Amino acid sequence: MILFPIAKINLGLHVTNKRPDGFHEIESCLYPIPLCDILEIIPAEEAKFIQTGIDLPNSNEKNICQKAYDLLAANYNIPPVFMHLRKQIPIGAGLGGGSSDAAFVLKGLNELFSLNISQLNLESFAAELGSDCPFFITSLPCLVGGRGEVLSPSNIDLSGKFLVLINPNIHISTKDAYALINPKQPEGKLEEILSSEQNKWKNSLVNDFQVPISKKYPIISETIDFLYENGAYYAAMSGSGSTVFGLFDFAPLAESRIKKVAQFIGEL
Fold first, then answer.
1. Does the chain have fewer CB atoms within 10 Å around its N or its C terminus?
2. What is the pLDDT of residues 203-236, one digit of tens each?
3. Cα separation of the two ends of the chain
4. What is the 3-state secondary structure of 131-158?
5. Per the residue annotation, which of 8, 37, 107, 208 is the catalytic one?
6. 8 A C-beta contact, residue 180 and residue 220
7. What are the structural domains of the chain?
């Protein structure tokens, strides 16, 4: 079985409160984008995991794909598997790549071994692995609340728009990003802002991480300005960084400066 775990961008991100459990209450809109990793899962006599592509930080911990397998194996009688993850989504980049990989392992194992786990239960398992993971079970536009695991469908539609991703090759850990935040209530309701004309988002659709992280890494705000200068109707940092995205009504021209620095350009 070969799967293609996709990435996401955040359309607005408000950090509203610090929870007693150490997590933060957030509200955001997660939107799937056509940038993906490649994940192969096949039954095997002995469990094995390999990773190629983008190098992951050295760690003694299991990869989140292995953790996803262990979670289902603890609840269902499934055989060992061989997993090969080809990493193409930048890490520490606010694109949800690791969360997506874990969620697609859950979905893949469910299909491969006919476990008949419901979508709701898959989302519950995914929430044990990470706050963004439940979103990737359906990979449909969603408004998220809680620590990111409370989902409600969104009718936001970016089809026909063009997306540019620029990653400044800065790894920003989620823990470090939250340390820069002072939670506060947003000035406007996210759902109402998203339902307004998209060309008005520039002045109203806010990512609370963007200003404090730009102060630490000015290249973030410089990249956002660069996208606006080149015709984006909306540009922002995704998640807790460091990837910046721009939305365009048109395909950036081949000779555009954007082509020289973008990691991804495509139609949504």
1. N
2. 999 999 999 999 999 999 999 999 999 999 999 9
3. 26
4. CCCCHHHHCCCEEEECCCCEEEECCCCC
5. 8
6. no
7. 2-153 (3.30.230.10), 162-267 (3.30.70.890)
